[in-house]
Amino acid sequence: xxYFPHHFPSPHIATMKFALSASVVANVALCTALVCLVxxxxxxxxxxxxxxxxxxxxxxAVTPAPTFRSAIANAYCEEVxxxxxxxxxxTMSYMPDFGEKDMEAQVTYMINNGLIPCVEFDQNGxxxxxxxxxxxxxxxxxxxxxxxxxFGATNARDVMQEVYECKKYNPRSYIRILGxxxxxxxxxxxxxxxxxx
Length: 197
Fold this sequence. Notes:
Blueprint: H1 11-40, H2 48-62, H3 68-78, H4 100-112, E1 116-122, E2 144-146, H5 156-169, E3 174-181, E4 186-194
Helix pairs in contact: 4-5
């Protein structure tokens, strides 16, 4: 056949096959040596340091390490939880309340990462179902925006000044600062800065 001439394999293919075979043989020899070392290592000093290291690793693997969940569970069990007044707002609400410098630091982080700060307020402050019982429908997801998003904000003090002004005119509202990404068109960050008096 002119398209598939019959010829012997090239020397390059033969070299590759030999290298693959040698690699398989070497791996089998290493695995056999390891099994022998594990099985007969206790009868002589050959491989004793390796055995001690392997036993130490096996002991560590069997002993369960304390988990993050257990630390949280222990702290939670010591705390009395009021189920009626246990409302949380965003991720930061699980931390102690922010002081003015903490809020400014968060806003500075927001601005330094290219996010656009926006101040919002709402008297209810939580989602609820009033107009529909359909799946994924909630009222109260969207809060009222205070003025416009602060495009071009470069200073956290300017944003905090807007928060104080919003507080002045809405003393019985929850107030939060959000950070929007104008490229992805999503809210990337948000935290509560004031609760009703």
